[in-house]
Design goal:
By secondary structure, the protein is mostly helical. It has two domains: 98 residues, Helix-hairpin-Helix base-excision DNA repair enzymes (C-terminal) (Endonuclease Iii, domain 2), CATH 1.10.1670; 75 residues, Hypothetical protein, domain 2 (Endonuclease III, domain 1), CATH 1.10.340.30. The protein has eleven helices and no strands. The longest helix has 18 residues. The two termini are 18 Å apart. The structure holds iron/sulfur cluster.
Length: 229
């Protein structure tokens, strides 16, 4: 028997209210599927999360988690890291890739935090993005994850999934962040972003999304395209 073609959501004609309702259904489905999904980077303090997030650029979280214990054991504070010999820091973080640039970044950030913020990571977007090399994404990771403030961080997974799910048509991370903020209550932002990343790593992967096993299928405009492919 021939299967009826799957109904495809027309997100171009979706009203703002309908999109909000759909986004909240997606958030609930993600919460059911991944109730404990949270940051995969290991950290004990906002400072450790900030460094780990910088090191995670172009690197897996698992690899970052392998190098940070030794880094933080040897240089436990921003002041200690700022004063460390660059060659030693490079050696410790080498396996995360781009280690020379990353060493410059974490030491420059450490210096500013030690000198201007009394060794404490600031907890505002404005102050965080004034740190050398810290953009909105990293600042949002720290604000949402370590400080418990409402924050949506748009990494490669969030950008891909927000587009596939028809929650945005934007490519620019700042615009995607704003689009998602409108759709969900602030108290859900951080968990939603972590769960999207989790889902993007396991099911809605970049090349061949596993739509047949996806708990978001009924709210996704990709229905009927990827499923039947
Ligand atoms: S249905 Fe497919 S494209 Fe849509 S979110 Fe799920 S895996 Fe991704």
């Amino acid at each position: 028997m021939k299967r009826a073609p799957a109904r495809r959501l027309n997100v171009a004609r979706e009203s703002p209210t309908a999109r909000k309702t759909r986004a909240r259904a997606i958030a609930r489905a993600l919460a059911r599927a991944y109730p404990d999904a949270w940051c995969a980077l290991h950290y004990r303090t906002p400072w450790e999360l900030l460094v780990a997030t910088i090191l995670s650029a172009q690197c897996t979280d698992a690899m970052v988690n392998q190098v940070t214990p030794a880094l933080f054991a040897e240089f436990p504070s921003p002041a200690a890291l700022a004063a460390a010999p660059a060659a030693r820091v490079e050696e410790l973080i080498k396996r995360t890739g781009f280690f020379r640039q990353k060493t410059k970044s974490i030491q420059a950030t450490a210096r500013v935090i030690a000198e201007r913020h009394g060794g404490e990571v600031p907890d505002t977007m404005e102050a965080l993005t004034e740190l050398p090399g810290i953009g909105r994404k990293t600042a949002n990771v720290v604000l949402g994850t370590a400080f418990g403030q409402p924050a949506i961080f748009v990494d490669t997974h969030v950008r891909r999934l927000a587009n596939r799910l028809g929650l945005t048509v934007e490519d620019d991370p700042d615009k995607i962040e704003r689009d998602l903020q409108v759709l969900l209550p602030p108290k859900e932002w951080t968990a939603f972003a972590h769960r999207l990343i989790h889902h993007g790593r396991r099911v809605c992967v970049a090349r061949k999304p596993r739509c047949g096993a996806c708990p978001l299928l009924r709210w996704c405009p990709q229905i009927g395209v990827k499923v039947s492919a």
